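Notes to self, NADPH:quinone reductase-like Zn-dependent oxidoreductase:
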Amino acid sequence: MRALLVDHSAPAGLRLGEAPDPVPAPDEALVRVTATSLNPGEVTGVIPGSPDGAVPGWDAAGVVERAAADGSGPAPGTPVATLGLAGGWAELRAVRTDLLGVVPAEADLGAIATTPVAGLSALRALHRLGPVLGRRVLVTGATGGVGRYAVQLARRGGAHVVATTGDPDRHGDRLRALGAHEVVADPGELADPVHGVLDLVGGPQLVRAHGRLAARGTLVSVGRASGEPTAFPAGAFEGMGAHDRTIATFFLLDCPDLGPDLTWLAGQVHAGALDPNVTWRGSWRDADAALAALVERRLHGKAVLDLD
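result:
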């Protein structure tokens, strides 16, 4: 099969080449991939840390070529969204059936390919916050793939959504169109406390977001886009209400029942109820251009590669 292979001698660390077909385990379906979406963590972490010849890829959408031998999962010919630790950037992918979401017929599989990591991360983080109806929810780093899904989902849940972005003048209108009620550059600008935070930035911004939490509020740390250390000042956990705030983390692949969530997200994207925020789309032959845009932080939203 053809695949995007790690090649540290190539300019972007990848080349299009040949790899062995995957051999599915009994609980895995074999999926013929038609589109994949890129995530910053893959570009900045997975590619540099993988050996030559490895096939990365967390997100992929395609069609079931062969059903799982144990009888679980969808039948051949079913369009699906898939999630895994590797293997998404290839024509064929073996994936556990509990990490498959069934996609509506005639759906744009390129748009659906944005849902596994970005959509599920946003949805599961909001689940961790609990009911948000009538509550103020802050989404930091809201212009990325996870952030834009989080803004939309929090708004649909009835929250008053506050979004942060490094350039509110440039991105504010788009974030408001997605559902944000307020757009600011930094959590420190907020006059009123928030009941929940989905933090995608880490570092000092996480600290300032935590400082704006109301009593019994929760901050869910989802991403660390800043790459900066997170250091709380002395006294951050002292004083009235300061002892009754929660900081939570989670690992997506440890979450149960991801398949049904993927199915739901795919349906919402296909119906137009969720915007997949595809801001770069092209052939996987042009993957270098998408990778460069991610590394240089010129891409706000999702990059989709079509396997042509």
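- The helical segments are 40-49, 109-112, 115-129, 145-156, 168-178, 203-211, 258-271, 287-295.
- The mean pLDDT is 96.
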